[in-house]
Amino acid sequence: MDTETTTWVDLIRHGEPEGGRRYRGHRDDPLSATGWAQMRAALGAEERWDAVLCSPLLRCRAFAEEVAREQGLPLHVEPQLKEIHFGDWEGFTPTELAQRDGERLAAFWADGERHPPPNGESLTEFHARVSGAWQHWTDRLSGQRVLLVGHSGMIRMILASVLDLAPARAMARLYIPYAGRSRVRLDDTEHGRLGCLLSHGLTP
């Protein structure tokens, strides 16, 4: 295969936020001390990128700002890369939500395209939002090495696009831990853009 341009993207989920595991969505909780340690441990001291891209939410943006500042890199903050909006579920722990709205929660995880969170975002809407931003930024940063700091759902939607998976399948089947890393290679060729997942879910 004659490759014209190759783009490398390291996707990393934010670390643990203050308050522990919750359906946060658009809530803007900062990283905990543990979360900061997870993120710093996840990146090797010798790793270098050409640009940093992130969600505007603090649990992603604060660490992205630190990396960009330390390496002297351009930082791009993209509102369309926020986590899925969980509507009425935002702020509840998994246990609390299973007790309060377990039937609808199970339906969402079975098929979030047909069963969105109450007053929240469907997976169809979420995937369209994230994949549009992914296309825009991988075009704009073509040929570069990019660090993207984001959310578990957001990364799942990107991998759904790269691997040609249904959004509901990617949401339910791809596990992404705190500070988990995935690497994607994009080759722009005469046959179009070819994406490949090189590694997934790596933690320190």
From TrEMBL:
Protein name (database record): Histidine phosphatase family protein
Single GO MF annotation: phosphatase activity
Highest taxon above the source species: Bacteria
Provenance organism: Alloalcanivorax xenomutans
Coiled-coil segments on the chain, per record: none
Gene Ontology CC terms: cytoplasm
SMART domains registered for this protein in UniProt: PGAM
Alphabetized InterPro entries for the sequence: His_Pase_superF_clade-1 (IPR013078), His_PPase_superfam (IPR029033), PGM_Phosphatase (IPR050275)
